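Protocol step 4 of 6: structure prediction from sequence.
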Amino acid sequence: MNPRTILGIFFLGSITTASTSFAQSDPSAPIPILSLTIPAAPPTEATPKLSLPAPKPAPLTRAPVSVAHPSKARFIILSAAVYGASLADMHQTLAVRNFYWWYETDPLARPFVHLPTSAYYATGLAMATGVNWLSWKMAHSRRWNKLAPIPQLLTIGGNLYGYRSNRY
């Protein structure tokens, strides 16, 4: 290992443990109590006292968090494109899989290529449904909603590449 790797490991380790090391303290150490007393001034008789009703404390409720609404039209269009590209790739693969020169290069699809036709279509559509479900869940997440179309777009691109590469 070179010194740069060791320095990087030390740096990452110090970053991850820094917050926990500051949070821990010795329980036997005395806790300093700072007290500040301000002498009260005697009230003057010249100013009249106004008695206002005490304000009621606000109930402890959370403010509503606004979540961006996912676009249903975009999801439906991308879902249809995922299914269309998957079906086109599966159909083209089935047309050329019996030729001597053909082999599957996609490691995800390789175990399923030699299944019977109906099982091959079923597993391919199940994978497309899984990608659409992942994208749907991402769209309804606060953290991942902006990245929701990425799995669908990657699937469409991969299937179109598979369709095009099977033709030659």
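Step 5 (inspection) to follow. The chain has four helices and no strands.
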